[in-house]
């Protein structure tokens, strides 16, 4: 039986930090399901369909990576697709507080689903989708922060 892990997020947009976590998770799990979740607290610049496309054309090139969207609770989604764990990335100590609360709540909701924390690779520790979007909005150089396709799509979104 394959060990599957769900990597949930907004991925607006996918960054090289996200891709690094996916590659590293593939060393531990047989399959990584990158799952775009609806977050009512966020207003993404890319539609769900655009984010699915960006992820399929970057992370999804590996046959062990599946890209999907979902709504509702991530633990319910994980159970539905037969995953045994949820992947969460940590960039800094400040991430740990909120991620620990989320992991404990998920554990309460489903004792069968584990949460696995991976530290972001040092070269990506400062990257977030929010920072990337801000840099793109003001014409900043995004090379090395996001895949080339994502850089092109961000430039299209923020053309003045």
Overview of the molecule:
It is a single chain. With 160 residues, the protein is α/β, with parallel strands linked by helices. Helices cover 39% and strands 19% of the residues. A five-stranded parallel β-sheet has the order 3-2-1-4-5, sandwiched between helices. The radius of gyration is 15 Å and the shape is globular. It has one domain (4-126): 3-Layer(aba) Sandwich (Rossmann fold), CATH 3.40.50. Helix 4 (93-109) links the parallel strand 4 (85-90) and strand 5 (114-119). The longest helix has 17 residues, at 93-109.
Beta strands, count: 5
CATH T-level fold name: Rossmann fold
Q: In the residues, how many domains can be counted?
A: 1
Mean pLDDT: 93
CATH superfamily: HUPs
Q: What would you report as the Rg, rounded to the nearest angstrom?
A: 15 Å
Q: Which regions have little confidence, pLDDT < 50, spanning 5+ residues?
A: none
Major sheet = 5 strands, parallel
Binding site for ATP: 10-11, 18, 89-91, 99, 124-130
Subcellular location: Cytoplasm
EC number: 2.7.7.3
Keywords: ATP-binding, Coenzyme A biosynthesis, Cytoplasm, Magnesium, Nucleotide-binding, Nucleotidyltransferase, Transferase
Short description:
The chain is an alpha/beta fold.
Topology of this structure?
Blueprint: E1 4-9, H1 16-25, E2 31-37, H2 48-56, E3 65-70, H3 74-81, E4 85-90, H4 93-109, E5 114-119, H5 129-137, H6 148-157
Parallel strand pairs: 1-2, 1-4, 2-3, 4-5
Subunit structure: Homohexamer.
Pathway: Cofactor biosynthesis; coenzyme A biosynthesis; CoA from (R)-pantothenate: step 4/5
Site (Transition state stabilizer): 18
């Amino acid at each position: 039986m394959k060990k599957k892990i769900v990597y949930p997020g907004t991925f607006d947009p996918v960054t090289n930090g996200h891709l690094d976590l996916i590659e590293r998770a593939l060393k531990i799990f047989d399959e990584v399901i990158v799952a775009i979740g609806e977050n009512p607290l966020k207003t993404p610049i890319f539609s769900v369909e655009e984010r699915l496309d960006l992820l399929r054309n970057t992370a999804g090139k590996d046959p062990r990576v599946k890209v999907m969207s979902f709504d509702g609770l991530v633990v319910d989604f994980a159970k539905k697709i037969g995953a045994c764990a949820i992947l969460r990335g940590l960039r800094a100590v400040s991430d740990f507080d909120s991620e620990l609360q989320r992991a404990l709540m998920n554990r309460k909701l489903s004792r069968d689903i584990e949460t696995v924390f991976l530290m972001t690779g040092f070269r990506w520790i400062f990257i977030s989708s929010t920072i990337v979007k801000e840099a793109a909005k003001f014409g900043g150089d995004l090379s090395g922060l996001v895949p080339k396709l994502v850089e092109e799509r961000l430039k299209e979104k923020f053309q003045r």
